[in-house]
Write a structure and sequence with these properties.
Elongation Factor Tu (Ef-tu), domain 3, Ubiquitin-like (UB roll), 5-stranded mixed β-sheet, about 30% strand, binds FE2/S2 (inorganic) cluster, OxRdtase_FAD/NAD-bd, Cbr1-like_FAD-bd_dom, Beta-grasp_dom_sf, EC 1.6.-.-, iron
Length: about 325
């Protein structure tokens, strides 16, 4: 079986698949070589073992603790990656992963006081780090608050029984859950919150609300995972974007990346790493001013032709796109 792309050189075999919640599955993968990663990192997966469809998934296992490399994936109706991985891939199949990537990790934090905040499937790096801290910093004071829609949506429900965790569910009549959403009052009840390193992962609006609330409570050490799709409203003024095929005009506020402008206007674009690494979001700019902070996967010729990585492209004025 040949490597589909040099970006995903790690061949892994599916050892078993476990359903976690009604719409989330964990794939346990066996790698014949040593796959190096840190708790909290993600990998790109070559979808259908093809070169041009890559998707980013957090590695939910923990190095030095978990017997397998695991990916924990929510099935999304229109998600080509999640539909394949949770619906078609089966035990014994091979899939291809990139090197582990990302800097949403706890290993480099020197503190021993953490507050880990997760919502929905954003719990995957949080659980990975929680296990790592239990094994490598058993003295650490680690508080976890995990938000879900309802009790049946708690991912790793059995394993959470091993760790102190505050569960918050939007809809619940079960004991053991706070009903509603994460509030500043719930956060304020965390002992000495201002002195903690706070790490959060979940949908972008959730992470934005967490950031605002914990900073208002005096937190200075704050980290959030960055590869989740923002759900910004389409703008009606600001920078103008024109696509030639199909012909279309749309707007985005000054300061957004080209990827954010495309996504908030529902213009089809692939994105996986959101960090200028995977090359998924390659887009051609025909005219206009912009700056870039990564051209990592582009050739000299592509750059000369106006190709950019949309996630790393910062429009400085109106743009025309191919
Ligand atoms: S999403 Fe990976 S390079 Fe842009």
């Amino acid at each position: 079986m040949t490597m589909p792309t040099t970006q995903c050189p790690w061949r892994m075999q599916v050892h078993h698949i476990q359903q976690e919640t009604p719409d989330v599955w964990t794939l346990s993968l066996f790698c014949h070589d040593h796959y190096s990663y840190q708790a909290g990192q993600y990998a790109l997966v070559s979808i259908r073992n093809s070169a041009d469809t890559l998707r980013a998934y957090t590695i939910s296992s923990t190095p030095g603790v978990s017997p397998f490399i695991t990916l924990t994936i929510r099935r999304i109706d229109e998600g080509v990656g999640s539909q394949w991985l949770t619906g078609e891939v089966k035990r014994g199949d091979y899939i291809w992963l990139s090197d582990a990537q990302g800097d949403f990790i706890c290993e480099d934090k020197t503190t021993d006081r953490f507050l880990l905040l997760a919502a929905g499937c954003g719990v995957t790096p949080i659980m990975s780090m929680r296990r790592w801290l239990a094994k490598n910093r058993p003295q650490a004071d680690v508080q976890v608050i995990y938000n879900v829609r309802s009790p049946k949506d708690v991912i790793f429900a059995e394993e959470w029984k091993n760790y102190p965790v505050t569960l918050v569910a939007e809809v619940t009549n079960q004991p053991g859950f706070i009903e509603g959403r994460l509030t500043r009052e719930i956060l304020a009840a965390v002992p000495d919150i201002a002195s903690r390193t706070v790490m959060t992962c979940g949908p972008a609006p959730y992470m934005d609300a967490v950031e605002e609330n914990v900073k208002a409570l005096g937190v200075t050490q704050f980290f959030k995972e960055k590869f989740f799709t923002p759900v910004a409203e389409a703008a009606t003024s600001g920078l103008k974007f024109t696509t030639l095929t199909p012909a279309r005009e749309f707007y985005s506020p000054v300061g957004t990346t080209l990827l954010e402008a495309l996504e908030s206007n529902k213009v089809p674009v692939n994105a996986a790493c959101r960090a200028g690494v995977c090359g998924c979001c390659k887009t051609r700019v025909v005219s206009g001013e912009y700056t870039v902070n990564s051209t990592m996967t582009l050739t000299e010729r592509e750059i000369a032709e106006g190709y950019v990585l949309a996630c790393s492209c910062h429009p400085q004025g109106d743009l025309v796109l191919a």
